[in-house]
């Protein structure tokens, strides 16, 4: 039997590894590294290697790096078209996982995939690997190790709970933030925002809690009433993009007046 461990590594610093993740990494014979193209991807790959070296300072594992197809951007606003692009992207990734599990993992061995943040949130690797494992003639046992997500680090850094008493919190993409009715949003965490979709929520009496490169040494935080911090936020985002060439950010939008219960 083969084994494949999908291990959440937290969003940007080895200190976010859980003891369970460390134990799982110690059992790995082969680490599969998916190398994405584009600026910033080298840093993300370097962090994975740093984590591997920290947990396994004596080595004793193999590393297989393969190029990974880039995540499609939601440029096309037509949902069916976008879903088609994502389906092709997933099919390509499934082909890669099938190749890795068939050709790069021997019977009795354990493969490890280090997944950013928590693999249960905006990450389809679990479903893809499960689908591939079901199709293979040999048995591949899949295990999942949850991780600390960017959402948790955002709330912790700003020292706020994600929801106030009696309220719920939504987690949405930047694409959805462009489409929802702002008046209906009470607490929303926004991820995968390639624009600055929070601008749609101006004049809504909302606070924003924003974090860039959360957990990393160059983490940046901005918080305050959205209408007041908007200019600062746009300036910060533009200068970070200019400086580093890439930006990973997450934010919580919160209506200032709590819902009366
Ligand atoms: C594909 S999703 C993966 C989320 C990941 N599974 C998690 O649990 O954090 C990528 C998005 O997560 C958010 N993200 C991940 N790491 C981050 C970080 N270090 N700082 C800020 N946002 C981050 C960003 O919104 C980014 O667009």
Features:
7 helices, five-stranded mixed beta sheet, Cobalt-precorrin-4 Transmethylase, domain 1, 2 domains, Methyltransferase, Cobalt-precorrin-4 Transmethylase, Domain 2, 24% strand, globular, alpha/beta, 261 residues
Walk me through this protein's architecture:
- Helix 3 packs across helix 4.
- The chain has helices spanning 19-26, 41-55, 79-103, 125-135, 150-158, 174-177, 226-244; strands spanning 2-8, 30-36, 62-68, 110-115, 140-145, 170-173, 187-191, 206-212, 220-225, 249-255.
- The model has no long low-confidence stretch (mean pLDDT 93).
- The N and C termini lie far apart (54 Å).
- Helix 6 links the parallel strand 6 (170-173) and strand 7 (187-191).
- The strands form two sheets. The chain has a five-stranded parallel β-sheet, sandwiched between helices.
- It contains seven helices and ten strands.
- With 261 residues, it is α/β, with parallel strands linked by helices.
- It folds into two domains: 2-145, Cobalt-precorrin-4 Transmethylase, domain 1; 150-255, Methyltransferase, Cobalt-precorrin-4 Transmethylase, Domain 2 (2-Layer Sandwich), CATH 3.30.950.10.
- S-adenosylmethionine (SAM) is lined by residues 11-12, 116-118, 121-123, 149-150, 191-192, 211-215, 248-250.
């Amino acid at each position: 039997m083969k084994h494949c461990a999908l291990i959440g590594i937290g969003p940007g610093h080895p200190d976010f590894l859980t003891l369970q993740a460390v134990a799982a990494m110690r059992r790995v014979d082969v680490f599969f590294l998916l190398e994405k193209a584009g600026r910033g991807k080298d840093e993300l790959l370097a962090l994975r290697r740093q984590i591997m070296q920290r947990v396994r300072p004596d080595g004793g594992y193999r590393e297989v790096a393969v190029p990974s197809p880039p995540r499609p951007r939601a440029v096309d606003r037509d949902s069916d078209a976008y879903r088609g692009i994502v389906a092709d992207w997933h099919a390509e990734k499934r082909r890669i996982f099938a190749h890795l599990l068939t050709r790069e993992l021997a019977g009795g061995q354990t493969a490890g995939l280090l997944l950013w943040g928590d693999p249960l949130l905006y990450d389809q690797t679990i479903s893809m690997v499960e689908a591939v494992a079901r199709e293979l003639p040999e048995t591949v046992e899949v295990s999942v190790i949850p991780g600390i997500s960017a959402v948790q680090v955002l709330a912790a850094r700003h020292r706020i709970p994600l929801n106030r008493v009696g309220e719920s919190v939504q987690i949405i993409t930047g694409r959805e933030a462009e489409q929802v009715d702002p008046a209906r949003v009470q607490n929303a965490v926004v991820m995968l925002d390639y624009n600055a979709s929070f601008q749609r929520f101006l004049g809504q009496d909302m606070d924003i809690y924003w974090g860039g490169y959360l957990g990393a040494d160059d983490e940046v935080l901005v918080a305050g009433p959205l209408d007041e911090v908007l200019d600062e936020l746009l300036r910060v985002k533009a200068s970070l993009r200019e400086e580093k060439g890439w930006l990973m950010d997450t934010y919580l939008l919160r209506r200032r007046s709590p819902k009366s219960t």
